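Long-time lurker, first post. I've been practising inverse folding by hand and with some scripts of my own, and I keep getting stuck on stretches where the C-alpha cells seem ambiguous. Below is the full C-alpha cell string for one chain I'm working on. Before anyone asks, I'm not after the true native sequence, just a reasonable design that respects the backbone. If someone could post their per-position residues I'd love to compare against what I wrote down in my notebook.
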C-alpha cells in the first residue's frame, strides 16, 4: 500500500518559503542597490526612484528603463523595451494556472504584483515536488513579501547613497555589468546561445540609430531567433 501524499499546512508553507528565500537575498540585495544608484544617476529624484521601485518591482525592467533614461532615449523606446523584457510574465501566468488558478481574484492580483523570476521558479518547483500543497499561495506569498522588503530596502539605500555620490565616480557602470551577469547563467542551450548572439550583433550593428532604437530592435531579433531555433524540427 502506498503512503498518503503529505498535505502541508499554512505554517509549513510559510516557513518553507522563508527558508527557500534566504539564499536568493545574496543576489537580490546588491542588485537592488545598483538599481537605486542607476535611478538617481539617470536624473530621477530620490523620492521618485524609491516610489517607482515599489510600484514597478521588476529589477531587469527597472534598470533597463533607468539606463535608457540616462542615455536620453525616447519614451516609446523605453516603454517598448520594458514590455519586451517583461513579456516572459505571460508564460509565467500560463504556467501557474494549474497550481494557483483556483485562488480568489484578490490572491491572484496580489501574487501577480509580487511575481518575479525567483518567485516563479520556486513556486513551480514546489508545486511539482510530489507533496499536496492546498496552501501553496502562502509559500509564494512568503517568498514574494520577503523579496519585496529586501528589494525596497536595497533600492532605497542605493538611491539615497547614489544621490550623495559625485557623478565623477561613475557608479552607473554597474548597470551593464549586472546585465552581463544575468545573461551568462541563462545560456543553457542552442536557443539561448543563438538569441544572445543575434541580439548582441544586432545591438552593435544598430548602435547608431536615433533614440537608442537599436536596443529594442536587438531584443526583438534575439527573441525571434531564439524561438525559431527552439522550434522542434
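-- Answer (accepted) --
I ran through it position by position. Result:
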Amino acid at each position: 500500500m502506498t503512503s498518503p501524499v503529505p498535505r502541508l499546512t499554512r505554517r509549513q508553507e510559510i516557513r518553507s518559503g522563508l527558508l527557500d528565500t534566504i539564499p536568493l537575498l545574496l543576489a537580490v540585495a546588491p542588485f537592488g542597490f545598483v538599481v537605486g544608484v542607476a535611478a538617481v544617476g539617470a536624473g530621477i529624484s530620490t523620492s521618485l526612484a524609491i516610489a517607482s521601485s515599489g510600484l514597478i518591482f521588476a529589477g531587469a525592467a527597472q534598470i533597463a528603463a533607468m539606463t535608457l533614461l540616462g542615455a536620453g532615449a525616447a519614451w516609446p523606446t523605453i516603454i517598448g523595451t520594458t514590455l519586451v523584457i517583461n513579456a516572459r510574465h505571460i508564460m509565467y501566468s500560463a504556467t501557474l494556472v494549474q497550481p494557483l488558478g483556483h485562488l480568489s481574484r484578490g490572491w491572484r492580483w496580489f501574487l501577480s504584483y509580487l511575481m518575479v523570476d525567483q518567485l516563479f521558479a520556486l513556486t513551480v518547483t514546489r508545486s511539482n515536488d510530489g507533496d499536496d500543497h492546498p496552501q501553496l499561495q502562502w509559500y509564494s506569498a512568503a517568498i514574494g513579501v520577503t523579496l519585496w522588503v529586501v528589494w525596497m530596502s536595497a533600492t532605497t539605500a542605493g538611491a539615497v547613497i547614489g544621490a550623495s555620490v559625485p557623478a565623477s565616480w561613475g557608479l552607473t557602470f554597474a548597470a551593464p555589468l549586472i546585465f552581463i551577469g544575468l545573461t551568462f547563467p541563462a545560456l543553457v542551450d542552442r536557443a539561448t546561445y543563438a538569441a544572445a548572439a543575434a541580439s548582441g550583433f544586432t545591438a552593435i550593428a544598430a548602435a547608431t540609430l536615433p533614440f537608442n532604437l537599436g536596443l529594442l530592435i536587438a531584443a526583438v531579433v534575439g527573441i525571434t531567433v531564439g524561438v525559431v531555433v527552439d522550434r522542434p524540427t
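A couple of notes from the structure itself: The chain has a mean pLDDT of 82. Residues 10-78+88-172 form one domain. Happy to go over any region you disagree with.
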